[in-house]
Design brief:
The protein is of the alpha+beta class. The longest helix has 14 residues.
Amino acid sequence: MYYLYFLFSIQADRFYVGHSHDPWRRLQQHLTNNGDKYTASFKDWQLVAVFEVSHSRGDADKIEKFIKRQKSRTLIQKMIEPGFTGSGILAQLVRVPHVRD
């Protein structure tokens, strides 16, 4: 299963969107600076939302790129809210519940 994940850095006041088979392992890679230029400058990234996408990496990549092309902090903030229900391309997302506890 591929997951779409959202990170937030309080220090940078920024969101990061990515996809991975294992977003929890991927978070650790971001925190230990595994070569990612965007997340390397800050070490306080927190996983704020995770969504199941599908078994297809292509689907996960397509949705990640769609969100990034929107250049919308408002969209990301809506998506990480517990009651978010997607439409269109985002309708297939299924929230993984334990992240915002």
